[in-house]
């Protein structure tokens, strides 16, 4: 048997168990392959899982899935392989509330002709599929042709054709696809690639236990060209252009109202220019992208009421949209101890609909700026300061929806200092202040105030201490203060609605008694309190406590990574207390084993 046939992953067995708040999950995965004879190879792949959802005491909802694939390959000659494979899949879901019971089995055989310049696998067999209380049996087939390399003068050509499908009693499923690529490298770091793709996909499916069926057809054609150009030794430009047409059609195959139920046609045009440069005093990236889409819909007067029907998707009107974006990332070294990093991004969205009764036409403008300054105070102390701003302006074109025109302004300041006098001691502290203002253009003409603000202060502190070559400790603390309020923009006043305060403290140890062993015990504390501010008729505000949550508990993480055996275990017990419930205990478990044969 050729070496290409044996290019598979190692044999392994993986098991996992997870226990959450009201869920339990089990999973087993097996991958086993064996060289039975010098010319015969066999493989078994199994993936089985089950999950239990506890909805009430003594009431459980289950979801089970099982997938088994067995295949064997026999080398008739160095370039010809004989394949035999079978599959069995089960999926049962009682958690979603729908009838999601599926059973599928198939058995097929075929061959693969593998020459130096092409690869052609072909298989045919029998398939049985049962879902929605309906059973189908028929022929299943798959075939493809891959020509990875055709050299013609200075151009490299690649071709991939694929055809597969299921011809069942009542349903027809198939996929037709062809891809073509031509590539040429002119000289170092300068090349051009053209990709062409055409695909037709059809899927028939049941939408009711009575046997009502729909058919979904998906046609896609696309062309893409990529050009990489080396301007000089330190400057590159990348050009990308793509055009794609997509047509989706859903037909009802049975019943008195059979026929076309929904159709969507998309035309997509995309282009981008990317510059990358590097100089002694600066390096950076500039990226411009533009995407335009044209979507047209066609809906039948009467649509199926089944939740499984593809015709029940959101009824979107015909529309044209365009998104243009500019981004710039530059880095400036300011001497030996300072670095300045600037990231800017601008995006404009234009959305239009030809329907005169639809008033969703709008423009969205977004600006984002990040300015980061890094300063090395000493060989062991580093200070980093980041200033960020994000602005978004939403403007509806028609007056019927102009009341929703608004500005979003987000500002953030975050200084961070780190100290590392040695490899065994590391201390880091950061402080951040964030303010989010959302103001509507016509608040004063409407009843009430819709504009609001959100502010947050956060302090983080962490210390890493290496106690010995095998033991280390990590201590961290985080303080969060945040509030919500109504914003009277013209007067720059806030009417507070609520505020919250959070404290998180974590202590963790890391112990490595032997090579491959990691034992990490720890303990966490969390406290969150909050108050609401209720406006009174006379204009004052009443402060009322509405949140008082306390939790704490131990945590244990254990890892063992050997050459063939890997074990991962984590357990976390949490004791909680709220305003309404004095005490509750929750336990989370996660155990995973992987054995490489």
Total helices: the number is 0
What does the average pLDDT come to?
A: 91
Q: What does the main sheet amount to?
A: 28 strands, antiparallel, barrel
Q: What integer value in Å does the Rg equal?
A: 31 Å
Class from helix and strand fractions: mainly beta
What's the β-strand tally?
28
Helix content: under 10%
What characteristic shape results from the CA principal axes? globular
The end-to-end distance, rounded to whole angstroms, is 22 Å
β-strand amount: over 45%
Topology pattern, helix = H, strand = E? EEEEEEEEEEEEEEEEEEEEEEEEEEEE
Low-pLDDT runs:
1-8
Secondary structure: elements and pairs:
Blueprint: E1 12-19, E2 23-37, E3 40-56, E4 59-77, E5 80-93, E6 102-114, E7 119-131, E8 134-152, E9 155-167, E10 172-187, E11 190-206, E12 213-232, E13 235-252, E14 259-278, E15 283-299, E16 319-334, E17 338-352, E18 362-378, E19 381-396, E20 406-422, E21 425-440, E22 452-466, E23 471-488, E24 493-511, E25 517-535, E26 541-561, E27 565-577, E28 584-596
Antiparallel strand pairs: 1-2, 1-28, 2-3, 3-4, 4-5, 5-6, 6-7, 7-8, 8-9, 9-10, 10-11, 11-12, 12-13, 13-14, 14-15, 15-16, 16-17, 17-18, 18-19, 19-20, 20-21, 21-22, 22-23, 23-24, 24-25, 25-26, 26-27, 27-28
